[in-house]
Amino acid sequence: MVSHVKGSAITARVKWVRDTAGEEGVRAVKERLRPENRQLLEARVLPHAWVPFDLFVDLCESIDRHYGKGDLALVKDLGRFAARSNLPTLYRLFYVLGSPEFILGRSSRLWDVHYDSGRLEASFAIKDGRRGGTLRIVDFATPHRVHCLSVLGWAEQSVELSGGKGVEGSEVACRAKGGERCELLITWRP
After folding, report:
1. What pTM did the predictor assign?
2. Last residue of a domain, which of 26, 48, 83?
3. How many Å apart are CA 183 and CA 136, to the nearest integer?
4. Looking at the DSSP assignment, which residues form a beta bridge with residue 184?
5. Residue 187 and residue 20: Cα distance in Å, rounded?
6. pLDDT interval class at 19 (50, 70, 90)
7. Is the same domain home to 38 and 15?
């Protein structure tokens, strides 16, 4: 099965490049893409359209190689940026009024809006004065570290936007690294 992602994941990353390095930067990243993905991106990706997950992975890796160190560390920052840039005015109210638990819990229900494969499960706990959320990406057809790191960055930024302080995120397990599941841990202070 070929997985798909909403075009907004692509347009947010292109916006990050444009904001960082202008149109010349966008051209440089496009040149690093595989030809079929370059063609898709040049044909104009619409935010609400479904695009191949492979384009998402290729684009994130290309940005990371060109502007990062090629170790995927920048991918988490791209996820954080996407959380901010893809947040429509209507949802901003949810972030202001909702708690981190509310926002992360809602993300489980909205998974199908952004991906056509798998699901997201969220659970919460409080330990030593810190709140925590565990996110599990379940049954995603084409697991990839780029995806886990992007979701992790998105979750960290979402917790911050909804009032969490001292946010820390970590990748507990990843199927792409041989794990049985993809699991992310986010902790914060209220």
Report:
1. 0.94
2. 83
3. 4
4. 135, 171
5. 29
6. very high
7. yes
Same domain, 101 and 177: yes
Rounded to whole angstroms, the Cα distance separating 101 from 72 reads 27
Write down the residue that tokens 């099965």 correspond to: 1
Instruction: Find the helix or strand (DSSP H, E) in which 172 lies.
Output: strand 165-173
2 φψ region: left (φ > 0), alpha (ψ -120 to 50), beta (else)? beta
CB atoms within 10 A of CB 80: 22
Task: Return the closest-CA partner of residue 162 out of 112, 66, 75, 87.
Answer: 87
Distance in angstroms (rounded) separating the CA atoms of residues 23 and 6: 23
- Give me the pLDDT at residue 87, please: 74
Count of domains for the chain: 2
Average pLDDT over residues 86-101: 73
Core vs surface per residue 154-176: b (16+ CB within 10 A) or e: bbbbbbbbbbbeebebebebbbe
Strand partners, 127: 130
The edge-to-edge listing of strands for the beta sheet with 165-173 is: 119-127, 130-138, 182-189, 165-173
Domain co-membership, 127 together with 167 = yes
**56 shares its domain with 113:** no
